[in-house]
Amino acid sequence: MSTRPDIGDLFPAIALQTPEGGSISAADLRGKPAVLFFYPKDDTPGCTTEASDFSTLLPQFTAAGVAVLGISKDPPAKHVKFTAKHGLTVPLASDAETDGLADALDIWVEKNMYGRTYMGMERTTYLIDAEGRIASVWRKVKVKDHAAAVLAAAQALRS
């Protein structure tokens, strides 16, 4: 088990695939704060609510000068369908690589549901400052009101 990066640590610089066929990394986001929210799976109830909430608040994040990016292990093509089906405006990226960003953050974890053990994404959100350091971390996120709490923290970071 690796050590989880925490507040004050540099965010790992691992590239992610975008639905448009490009890539994005933490280095691409330097120069302004960013929110990276990791979620388990496209088109599931909690993940849809979370992505919708961040989409609703995206204009406020943008006004505060804060980039937002949703990340899961789903492939880019699935992100395209998820975005279209739910009218999402928040950008999404795919961390499909083995030993990818979720592994570096130690949030690709063993889960247990209905007696079945499997590997999955631990719902986690990072607020990264303009220099690429972790300013805040929310682990094992409960979706209700989460995006609003992250917006408040992001706005506070900018002031």
TrEMBL record:
<keyword id="KW-0049">Antioxidant</keyword>
<dbReference type="InterPro" id="IPR013766">
    <property type="entry name" value="Thioredoxin_domain"/>
</dbReference>
<comment type="similarity">
    <text>Belongs to the peroxiredoxin family. BCP/PrxQ subfamily.</text>
</comment>
<dbReference type="InterPro" id="IPR050924">
    <property type="entry name" value="Peroxiredoxin_BCP/PrxQ"/>
</dbReference>
<dbReference type="InterPro" id="IPR024706">
    <property type="entry name" value="Peroxiredoxin_AhpC-typ"/>
</dbReference>
<dbReference type="InterPro" id="IPR000866">
    <property type="entry name" value="AhpC/TSA"/>
</dbReference>
<protein>
    <recommendedName>
        <fullName>thioredoxin-dependent peroxiredoxin</fullName>
        <ecNumber>1.11.1.24</ecNumber>
    </recommendedName>
</protein>
<keyword id="KW-0676">Redox-active center</keyword>
<keyword id="KW-1015">Disulfide bond</keyword>
<dbReference type="GO" id="GO:0005737">
    <property type="term" value="C:cytoplasm"/>
</dbReference>
<dbReference type="GO" id="GO:0008379">
    <property type="term" value="F:thioredoxin peroxidase activity"/>
</dbReference>
<dbReference type="GO" id="GO:0045454">
    <property type="term" value="P:cell redox homeostasis"/>
</dbReference>
<comment type="function">
    <text>Thiol-specific peroxidase that catalyzes the reduction of hydrogen peroxide and organic hydroperoxides to water and alcohols, respectively. Plays a role in cell protection against oxidative stress by detoxifying peroxides and as sensor of hydrogen peroxide-mediated signaling events.</text>
</comment>
<keyword id="KW-0575">Peroxidase</keyword>
<dbReference type="InterPro" id="IPR036249">
    <property type="entry name" value="Thioredoxin-like_sf"/>
</dbReference>
<feature type="active site" description="Cysteine sulfenic acid (-SOH) intermediate; for peroxidase activity">
    <location>
        <position position="47"/>
    </location>
</feature>
<dbReference type="GO" id="GO:0034599">
    <property type="term" value="P:cellular response to oxidative stress"/>
</dbReference>
<comment type="subunit">
    <text>Monomer.</text>
</comment>
<keyword id="KW-0560">Oxidoreductase</keyword>
<dbReference type="Pfam" id="PF00578">
    <property type="entry name" value="AhpC-TSA"/>
</dbReference>
<feature type="domain" description="Thioredoxin">
    <location>
        <begin position="5"/>
        <end position="159"/>
    </location>
</feature>
